[in-house]
Amino acid sequence: MKNVELLAPAGTYEAFRAAINAGADAVYLGGSAFGARAYAGNFDKEQLLEALDFAHIRDRKVYLTVNTLLKENEMGEPLYDYLLPFYEAGLDAVIVQDWGVFDLIQKAFPGLDIHASTQMAVTGCASAGLLKRMGATRVVPARELTLDDIKKIDQNVDIEIESFVHGALCYSYSGQCLMSSMLGDRSGNRGRCAQPCRMKYDNEYVLSLKDMCTLELIPQLVQAGVDSFKIEGRMKSSEYVAGVVSVYRRYLDKYLEYGKNAVKPHERDLISLSDLYNRGGFSKGYYPGKKGRDMVSLTKPNHQGTCAMEVISSRPGSAVCKALVPLNKGDVFDLEKEFDYTLAGAVKPGGTVTLSLPKKYVMQKGRKLYRVRNNSLINDILDRYTKADCKTAIQGAITLQPDKEASLVLWKDDTCIAVQGETVMRAMNRPLTAEGVQMQISRMNDTPYILENLEINMDNDVFLPNGKLNELRRKAVTELTNALTARYKRSTDNCSAQAALEWQHQSEHKGFTGNKVNVMIDSVSSDCMDMIRFVSSMDGIDGIYIEAEAFEDSKELAAMVDIIHKDGHNAYISLPYVVRGRTSEYIEKLAEDADMINADAWLVRNLESAAIITRLRPDDRIITDAGLYTMNSRARMRFDIEFPQIITDTAPYELTVNELLQLGIGNSELMVYGRVPVMISENCVRKTRNMCDGMCGVTKITDDRKRCFDVASRCRNCYAVTYMSDAVSVLDMPEQIRRMAPGSWRLTFTSEDKDCISHIIRDAILISEGKNMSGECYTHTTHGHFDRQIL
């Protein structure tokens, strides 16, 4: 049976130590920059270097998260200088989202493994195969994949698969969520997500998914081809990390040694995981192929705890409760927002507890009370995994011969060192004993080692002071540590600062050069056909994007393309926001019918569709949408290398005017009006509310600040797109548009009426021609990030 890695998170050095001590094979963590958990404690340079040695001595690995999008001024030297000391110290791999970062690391740091982050939204064989060809050694697929989806990747692509098995689930596909960014400038793509999915919408937490627990799925996950079991939680405490790791370590080892019949989770372990953290209970994530209401924690967005007591009687100021699970002294119960209750003593299941409550407070009989801190469990974890570090077994041999230097050899596996000490003397009255030598040399308390076996070669009448034996031991331990860590060290001779700096690009656009106006109908609603025909009838438009999913079949799609062509416009086919499972077959069918459809280009929104179209239609032109991020020029150039048929990319939604100027968008398309898709999700609000009828439609949700969002159900391929409440518009900033000089402009319409559409198109054409717009102000619009920098 193949080896399976258990991969733990660490947001602090304490959590890192706890993870290793609890049995993690590898730990992923963030440094002082470029990581997707900016609010975790993270590691400074010295801590990270120390962590590398700590792990490598114990044959464990460390992966560094560099999984954010980098702006133009952050590429090159800043990133190179940041990574160089960790590369030299033996960093095992980097986890990457940004294509520019991928390219820089690959060229500047030879031999450093690159893991494609879940932020890349890898959803199938095509995208996994693409990243394999690019040089990635591992992919972290989207958390939305089923066991069957993962198995297909494993069977068709020779690449390691790392999958999340426990912890929080984002509502949106990772890397495809702009909600936090657009609402409050805290970008998830920069590690600063404010978690708007954990907020109330229409008085319920309709976007807050339960945490995932896959303890029962260990056999199926291994059989599907998962090489690394990844636990989420870089924002969590050290006791959480150690507790979860220890449980998964135990069951993973059982499976690897005894097979699937040995993996039958005990109730106490499931309770322990629940005690450590859960949101409204657990789900098995998307692995079983199901989604919907059962995955959502509608009433509580944070730690719910474990159902541990039931009220059996109550009166004002007190309540009698029955214990449902073993209770411990110091356990904490979350009774109301206003107060918690700490248990005074241990109680067995079935025993009773009398709670002292605020006066006139009455609890309803039958109410379940949830324990949010299992005090005994936490203390046990802290005692086991944080007070002393795990040790690695070594072997030794000592030679003590009179009138010769003492010699001590220590080794671990194939790493061996030998040191010499003071000259051994002949004993005058108290010669050394084997037991005494064994005791002195085995004193490894303050070291990372435990001496399993010591071979002692000495005469019967020799003597060496204990202090000299201790000195010999310390010298040998230091040498062994140096030798063990040296196995991982790299020379920086092969590193290339020049490779890091090449392709640095400064835009020198002077004046307005772009004059093409393209219109996107980003809708699959029943009236979108009428919208397309209406837009096509207008003059001054260069091209029209139409959603492939809005059409019944390729013939209907081809007919609409023909109408657009006859009206004198280019026709671009917008492919689905999500491509996985059966949707891949849908894309392949479109590619098969491409000659009949006769579109001028494909708009690809994810790596999977880009890779499929490139493989099946290598001569067709493609346009990359904003979800394929080109936040820096190096990323854009790497896309051009991998997809030479790209005719333009879409300028990122998260850059300011000045940042777009620095990037240079003379060959890019800029959305100057439109509602930004802020979430692409496998779950759908309509299904969560038991309203799913399989028909495409829009559901409105409203947050506590009365901001309304449109959730569009894309039922053909069963996913949803959530749009910003207000449209982003820079049509009232014509001078800034001219300064940025985009290659083309995009107007995106989702639910606007014809009057609004014609008015906006007319203004855009006027501005593109260097004229003044009509002067009418648009309501419900924002400048987005054009004048607001993301954090």
TrEMBL record:
One Pfam family named in its UniProt record: Peptidase_U32
Domain Peptidase U32 collagenase, residue spans: 369-484
Domain of life: Bacteria
Protein name per Swiss-Prot or TrEMBL: Peptidase U32 collagenase domain-containing protein
Species whose genome carries this gene: Bacteroides pectinophilus CAG:437
